[in-house]
Design a protein that fits this description.
This protein is of the alpha/beta class and 470 residues long. The protein has 19 helices and nine strands. It has a seven-stranded mixed beta sheet, sandwiched between helices. Strands 8-9 form a two-stranded antiparallel sheet. The radius of gyration is 25 Å and the shape is globular.
Length: 470
């Protein structure tokens, strides 16, 4: 007979769901899983080892009746229509003040819609981003909840127990009302796209300019991970270069097809930034490069039609040093763009986000965790209203020192036909954002000339239009 005092319910026992619910059970909360796939139910029960501690079923009534009230049910299912279908299947069995948590990468407007819909039925609903992949879910993810604050209070002890810890602090915090949690996770993923693209470009430049072996690349990235570039992505990149291929005598990275897939969160970040009018070109180009990578056959044909320069020889040690500085610069500008978007969205959607807290909960558990986030959090503690990280007094000298290397690397890439759009966009963004005078006065003149769109002047107030001489 199933007991009725399980603290936490979870729907969706795939890899993420199974790992998350086992993490909950490891932290002394009784957890109950639900999945229509009997194999997944049985796998969880076997791995859990103690049904008093963690149990599962494919019977929805048994699942819901096993949970202590107010029921706390987390969904870890693919974003989209499936989330709505699961909610509808749960609803007939729930009571007023029960809580549903969407832990997937749902688009933030879907979360707002679902919250309003369930509020009418007396059910609390909130979205909660979960980052860190399958290992993070098992050992401690970064969790980004938003929604009804009173409902979150019921889940808070569980989330704080299972989250990753940084110097003893749990990497989870209530972020704001409505879809704040899903929105922050979306932008987190956009930053992730940017950082992955930048890392791949540095790899490309190092191997083509210095003819570095995978062993050398492993050593370089491993060394960088012990310094200011310390981050999850640099760490796993070092590990990737050391991985031998069990199908051949070489290294696995050399056998992997250069076509990157995507699930949509990077694209959503870019689309929403366009809606808000916030420039995030390092993230935009990372999305575009995945799309270009998909055109493999066309790229192979185009490569045969055009000549490409042979990369110039370089001083290996100097180039490696330059690459480290450029990657550091570009990581900062990518974080700056994502955080700028969060600051603006916070006002637009009334999330009241605290960027210092967001940077803190990203310090461990998540994919974009990095030593840099400690400095970023401190910058927003010093001035919570700062609109862009590039304006933070503590970051000005860091960026100032690193930008010359980024200029040299971008110039080298352009001259030698090595695509480095992430680095280039990061530098262009920096140069444009830090320019007090841009040539957009000409664009305004053009707009007024062909469409009578009017313009403003530098020397007097008002809106002007000119009958241009044809």
């Amino acid at each position: 007979m199933t007991h009725t005092n399980y603290d936490f319910g979870l729907v969706g026992l795939g890899v993420m769901g199974r790992n998350f619910i086992l993490n909950v059970a490891d932290n002394n909360f009784k957890a109950f899983g639900y999945d229509l796939d009997k194999e997944k139910v049985d796998a969880l029960k076997e791995e859990g080892g103690n049904l008093e501690r963690v149990n599962a079923t494919g019977d929805i009534e048994a699942f819901i009746s096993a949970l202590a009230k107010p029921r706390k049910i987390m969904l870890l299912v693919p974003a989209g229509k499936i989330v709505d279908n699961v909610i509808e299947s749960l609803l007939p069995h729930l009571d007023t003040d029960d809580i549903i948590i969407d832990g997937g990468n749902s688009f933030f407007t879907d979360t707002d819609r679902r919250e309003a819909y369930l509020q009418e039925k007396g059910i609390h609903f909130f979205g909660s981003g979960v980052s860190g992949g399958a290992k993070g879910a098992r050992k401690g993810p970064s969790i980004m909840p938003g929604g009804n604050k009173e409902a979150y209070a019921h889940v808070q002890p569980i989330f704080e127990a299972v989250a990753a810890k940084f110097n003893g602090e749990p990497c989870v915090a209530y972020l704001g009302p409505k879809s704040a949690g899903n929105y922050v996770k979306m932008v987190h993923n956009g930053i992730e796209y940017g950082m992955m693209q930048l890392t791949s470009e540095i790899y490309d430049l190092l191997r083509k300019s210095c003819k570095l072996t995978n062993e050398e690349l492993h050593t370089i990235f491993d060394t960088w991970n012990k310094g200011r570039l310390q981050s999850f992505l640099v760490e796993i990149t070092a590990e990737i270069f050391a991985q031998k291929d069990d199908q051949s005598s070489g290294y696995l990275v050399d056998k992997i097809l250069d076509k990157a897939k995507q699930k949509g969160t990077g694209k959503w970040t870019s689309q929403n930034a366009m809606d808000l009018g916030i420039p995030i070109p390092s993230i935009d180009i990372a999305v575009s490069m995945r799309e270009i990578s998909a055109l493999k056959e066309e790229r192979v044909l185009a490569d045969s039609l055009y000549n490409r320069p042979t990369p110039e020889k370089t001083d290996k040690d100097a180039f490696i040093k330059m690459a480290e500085e450029a990657l550091y610069f570009a990581f900062i500008t990518t974080y700056a763009q994502g955080l700028h978007q969060l600051a603006d969205a916070s006002k637009e959607y009334k999330y009241d986000l605290d960027l210092s807290v967001i940077a803190k909960i990203w310090r461990a558990g998540c994919i974009i965790r990095a030593g840099l986030l400690e400095d970023i959090s401190a910058a927003y503690v010093a001035d919570k209203n700062i609109s862009n990280l590039l304006l933070a007094p503590s970051f000005v000298p860091k960026v100032q020192k690193a930008v010359p290397a980024a200029r040299e690397l971008v110039a080298y890439a352009a001259k030698n036909g090595i695509p480095a759009p992430g680095l280039t966009n990061s530098l262009t963004y920096f140069d444009a954002y830090t320019s007090s005078n841009l040539p957009l006065n000409l664009i305004q003149a053009q707009r007024d000339h062909f469409g009578s769109h009017t313009y403003e002047r530098t020397d007097m107030e008002g809106i002007f239009h000119t009958e241009w001489d044809s």
